[in-house]
Amino acid sequence: MGSCSDRNEERKKLEKNLRGIINRLNENTIVSSVKSVGDMFASYAHNDVKEVLFDALYKSAAVGYRLPDRILIEYALFIALLHSTVSVEISSYFVENFILRFVGVISSPPDDKSLENISVLLAEIYNFKVIKASMVKEILHRLEVVISDKLLECSKLILSYSGAVMKSRDSDVLQKCVSDIHIQLSRIPKERHQEQHLRFLVEEFMAIKNANIRKWTDAVDRTLLDHYISIFRGLTKKVGKETELGMSVDDIEHIAERGRWWLVGSAWQPAMSANTASPSICVQQENTSKFDHSLLTLARKARMNTTLRRNIFCTLLSSQDEVDAFERLMRLSLKGQQEREIIHICVHCALREPSYNPFYAAVLKHFCAFHKRFKLTMQYALWDRIRELNKLQTWQRPLLAAVIADLILNKSIGITVLKVCHLCVSKFVSFSICA
């Protein structure tokens, strides 16, 4: 009972802190706000932080009156900085739930200005390279399906705020967006042309030639976006750039069937498009095929459910020693979230052995010594495991303890990795070191 009460108190404290951060968010507080969220993400349960942060941000953006552009750009900058400097888990969770809410609102548009606000926010998170142009295109298509002046206004807003960037970055997508809208509008029944506002909007869209929407984009203060993009570049110039989230609206709507492949760098492709897989996907498939069938079977039993994860797993287990494993894994030339999978899989494998195997800690030691980014990933991976001790099998807990002990003794990580442990708890969880 006490532990449940403590968790509720922690949750309330987290909600209060995150709401305060969002309410005070501006150009002067953005850096400290991102740092504070990063600290909370390291100290609290990841799901709690993601849920509360999304709820606070969405409620702040989806208000009934039209928000100033500056506020919406600051929200987008905040999300982009979390995406690039804290964790792609946070930005991914935000985008998943934001898109689901957006699609839900489209089916029953409100009379207030909340849909306009989230339309502009969608455009701005594209401008900051959190999502791809293809996702913006999908949302525009959803807005076109049911023709109404409200939804056309939102389509115009999205193009007005993202059009200038899209023209320089993804001109082919912009051309397709405008072309698709023209096709949809040409099918409107003649009787609907009696609606004055709708007729005016249709004429505006149909007047666009060669995807030239400069009349709309010029109506938006571009200097404001340029100013915040320069801030973003300045704050992330020393950080390894995260790529845009690769999922589509359709992927988000079918997470139950397909999983969150964008979080683990999967090479998932729909069966119908298997022939058009990218070169990098083909390389991963070729790499996987060189391993023994028995090793691939073991990988599947270990729930290595993507090509990337199987490739890392098989490379790790087929190595001669820790040095060979490190060198072969580095030669995979993974980046960003894909690279971080190496650490998570090493920890996963260490906890599946029948008895403690120091090989995995030795491999992890090499990665931690190579670059500090691996130390940070290691810290988060171990924190996640420590917080979920009750979910581990009894025989796995000593294995986790032994891995942590080895890494601390080798100075690969600091003893501060244990700061998430609640040493004074009413229900003691066994956590003994292996002999």
TrEMBL record:
InterPro entries: ARM-type_fold (IPR016024), CWC22_splicing_factor (IPR050781), Initiation_fac_eIF4g_MI (IPR003891), MIF4G-like_typ-3 (IPR003890). The keyword rRNA-binding does not apply. GO terms for biological process: ribosomal small subunit biogenesis. Coiled coil: none annotated. Keywords: Nucleus. GO terms for molecular function: RNA binding. PROSITE patterns: MI. Residues 307-423 form the MI domain. GO terms for cellular component: nucleolus. It is found in: Nucleus, Nucleolus. SUPFAM superfamilies: ARM repeat. The keyword Nucleus applies. Belongs to the CWC22 family. This is MI domain-containing protein. It comes from Parascaris univalens.
